[in-house]
Amino acid sequence: MCEHEHHHENSYVIPRIAAALILFACGFWFKPLFLVSYLLAGGDVLFKALRNIIKGQIFDENFLMGLATIGAICIKEYPEAVMVMILYQIGEYFQHRAVEKSRHSITKLMDIRPDYANLNGEKVSPKSVKIGDIIAVKTGEKIPLDGVVIEGEASVDCSALTGESVPVRVKSGDNVISGCINLDGVLQIKVTKEFGESTVSRILELVEHASSKKAKAENFITKFAKYYTPAVVVMAVIIAFVPPLIMHTGFTAWFQRALTFLVISCPCALVISVPLSFFAGIGGASKEGILIKGSSYIETLSKPSVVVFDKTGTLTKGVFKVTEIVSENPNLLKFAAFAESASSHPIAAAIKKEYEKEIPPQSNIREIAGCGVEAVIDGKKILAGNARFAGTKPVNKDGTVVYVSIDGEFAGYIVISDEIKEDAPFAVSALKKMGITTEMLSGDTYKTAVSVQQTLSLDKVYAELLPEDKVNKLEELITNSSGSVIFAGDGINDAPVLTRADIGIAMGGLGSDAAIEAADVVIMDDKPFKVVTAIKISKRTMNIVKENIAFALGVKVLFLILGGFGFITMWGAVFADVGVALIAILNALRAIKRIK
After folding, report:
1. In this structure, what is the dihedral angle of CA atoms 462, 465, 469, 473, given to the nearest 10 degrees?
2. Which DSSP category does 595 fall into?
3. What residues are annotated to the active site?
4. Of 173, 323, 336, 386, which sits most exposed with the smallest number of CB within 10 A?
5. Where are the beta strands (DSSP E) in 315-447?
6. Which of 497, 539, 500, 489 minimizes the C-alpha distance to 303?
7. Considering the chain, what is the average pLDDT of its residues?
8. Which of 28-42, 437-451, 496-510 has the lowest mean pLDDT?
9. Is the distance from CB of 439 to CB of 460 less than 8 angstroms?
10. Helices (DSSP H) in 463-565: which residue ranges?
11. What three-state secondary structure class fits 558?
12. For the chain, how big is the Rg over CA atoms in Å?
């Protein structure tokens, strides 16, 4: 049923319940009104039960409620039959309200969907805008597509995406992502991605499918209900007919016990509260700017033994600058900048920025994964990358070193430095307090990796790794780990590792197609501490799920036993069904609150 239909249906619930209660009260003076009240409160339950029977889906909560209340009417227990339906409808109403509260945190992201784009002075569909088109974004408008600012300066609100309330200032040359709101000024943006590939489109697709991957606990509840419901119907039939035949006692008392048993047995609390807990957990995470692709990932994320970080762009800012050039060749920087001209890697960007001059288009460039780039510049063969690739020995420097050879002879190196993110130390410290091992994988030199390790107090680091080395090292960690292994990377070159980890977390991965596709969790800004927040949300959600399962099953079993022996009335049965469901729903909603 679509959202509009749910809203239309729920808008009549309160008046219907109020009318049913008034007719219920009047029924004590004029008994036929009990039947009118019953049909008003429970007509839709009977209709759903009949419809499901026709479809072959007999044993569900509607069938149990209908069977129990019709039976109560047959033995003239009119008030009990009517009140069961009224309280059931009240419970259903609160369930819908709870689901909508959880859904609101997720569907709030749907507000990022742009309505139009300003192209050539006209408002057009974002889907009709092509790469390279120049669009204008005025004050108060959403940025409809990913692009780069070519003119103007403004503050943009990214809170719907990142959970951060502080606006970001953007100017000419800055990249911007769709879904953010321009708070002031006018921006001219050159589009870099079509709508179907843009950040807003990818995120919306992710949100819409967030509930498709079910956790083991949800699958357990589905299987449990499948076998549980017919079992209790059989037990109710036994209670109704066997004791009177064996003990030659009155049929009515045992029939009433059987009806009470049926009302108690409705698995509403479990069937509703467990999926709702996961749904609320996903909604709570979205408030923090964390997108979890499904409840199965919450389950795995809640029991990590190791968190493995990539270095560049994850623990460090990935904003590089050239700090040293060592060479006797005055053209070393030029050759390196020309060779790196086709790369979007932060290290390449730092070299090109240091060169400061315009770089003409280059055609003879070949990237060699894990090594560097090979290019022909001014008739000379240039190799720029690691020491082994350039044919020399590594130097002992703090930072990333790009070695350059010209026509097969080592010509010098460029030192590029990065900066550790402000919240990285707090993230590592918090993970250690949770008993989680922290490790780092890096393609940088061992000295640079150890420097980061000492600054952050990481447990282990692995340096000078090629892309395939990172995957192999992660597989080794997974084999030797007692719990799940989480890998957090910036999503630029980490897709294979993100895919291989038990949980892959893309840091600041909004602009990376590979990250959104490969990761199980997307953190919509670049703060490492959000990894801690995601784990805490998952742990809290799983605790709530376990509480609801234990509480619902415990109360059900107790009341079923008491009901079978006649110690519970129909009113007690209503509490065991609707009351337990409401308590479990309220408990589930704790998962949506923000982590302190």
Report:
1. 10
2. P
3. 310
4. 173
5. 321-327, 365-368, 372-377, 380-385, 400-406, 409-417, 437-441
6. 539
7. 82
8. 496-510
9. yes
10. 467-480, 495-500, 513-518, 529-564
11. helix
12. 31
| Tokens read off for 112 | 């990022």
Query: Whats the size of the chain, residue-wise?
Result: 596
Q: Please tell me what DSSP assigns to residue 133.
A: -
Cα distances (angstroms) measured from residue 479 to each of 434, 442, 535, 594: 22, 20, 21, 34
Residue 177: phi and psi, rounded to 5, are -115, 150
Question: Nearest to residue 80, comparing CAs of 264, 250, 270?
Answer: 264
Q: Do the beta carbons of residue 486 and residue 501 sit within 8 Å?
A: yes
Helix (H, G, I), strand (E, B) or coil at 47: helix
Instruction: Give the number of other CB atoms < 10 A from CB of residue 502.
Output: 21
DSSP state of 575: I
Output the six-digit token pair for 162. Answer: 């990142």
Q: Which two tokens stand for residue 93?
A: 């109403």
Q: In what order do the strands lie in the sheet with 365-368?
A: 321-327, 409-417, 400-406, 380-385, 372-377, 365-368
pLDDT in tens, 132-159: 999 999 988 889 888 999 999 998 887 6
CB contact burial 339-360 (16+ within 10 A = b; e otherwise): bbbbbebbbbbbbbebbeeeee
DSSP string, 76-120: T-HHHHHHHHHHHHHHHHHHHHHHHHHHHHHHGGGGG----EEET
Nearest to 63 by CA among 241, 265, 252, 253: 265
Helix H segments across 248-343?
251-265, 268-287, 295-301, 332-339
Instruction: Compute, in degrees rounded to 10, the torsion defined by CA atoms 18, 19, 21, 23.
Output: 170
Task: Give the strand pairing for 521-523 and 290-292.
Answer: antiparallel
Q: For residues 284 and 530, what is the distance between their CA atoms, to the nearest angstrom?
A: 13
Report if pTM > 0.90. Answer: no
Helix/strand/coil for 185: coil
pLDDT at 308: 96
